[in-house]
Specification:
Blueprint lengths: L2 H13 L6 E2 H7 L4 H10 L9 H16 L9 H4 L2 E2 L1 H19 L15 H16 L7 H16 L2 H38 L1
Antiparallel strand pairs: 1-2
């Protein structure tokens, strides 16, 4: 299923939601197997915003998603999670927003190197999502940006079956890890220098 087909499917579902709360299982079913891709995008995108606390909260959801991806039956939403529900208005808006997003990325992506963005991608995408969630959780100045971009690229790659984009996601994730390690090393060195200076003063 192309991202344009997915966008059409989500738009149709948004217009046919029944009254009352909508279970997450129904929303996952509307994605036709692409619900993990959408969750990656929805949870990672707000982490780009300079709003205190957003990354810390959403990183927990990303970590749980990463753990789920590492499981043997990661294609299925766990029943306990599926029974949770959203208000109909919120569910409809979310589906419509995702439909517009997938319409947009249809022009920028295409299926290629699909083995890198298919079901077997979970073997590296699960651990990567968990690691990026840890980096987002850490209080590193501007440390949310690269991990969030890496996860958004991964979500788009999954939805579009774009292996080249998945490689780009892995590259950005590696850069995020290196940048975070460098910043933590600099912070450690600065702290050690300050303590040494205070001791000599």
């Amino acid at each position: 299923m192309s991202t344009r087909d997915l966008a059409s499917r989500l738009r149709d579902t948004a217009g046919r939601l029944p009254p009352g709360p909508v279970p997450l299982a129904a929303l996952a079913e509307a994605h036709g197997g692409a619900w993990q891709a959408s969750l990656l995008v929805l949870l990672a995108a707000p982490c780009l915003l300079p709003i205190p606390g957003v990354g810390s909260v959403l990183s927990v959801g990303l970590a749980l998603l990463g753990i789920l991806m590492c499981g043997a039956h990661c294609a299925d939403m766990p029943p306990r999670l599926g029974r949770l529900s959203l208000p109909r208005e919120g569910a409809s808006r979310s589906l419509a927003l995702l439909a517009r997003f997938y319409d947009f990325i249809y022009r920028l992506t295409r299926p290629r190197m699909t083995s890198l963005a298919g079901p077997h991608a979970r073997w590296w995408l699960g651990p990567m999502t968990l690691l990026m969630a840890v980096l987002i959780f850490l209080p590193i100045p501007f440390g949310n940006v690269l991990p969030a971009v890496a996860l958004m690229l991964a979500g788009v790659a999954l939805a579009a079956r774009d292996g080249a984009l998945m490689l780009a996601s892995l590259g950005v994730g590696a850069g995020a890890l290196a940048a975070s390690a460098g910043l933590m090393a600099l912070g450690w060195q600065a702290g050690a220098t300050l303590l040494a200076w205070v001791g000599l003063a």
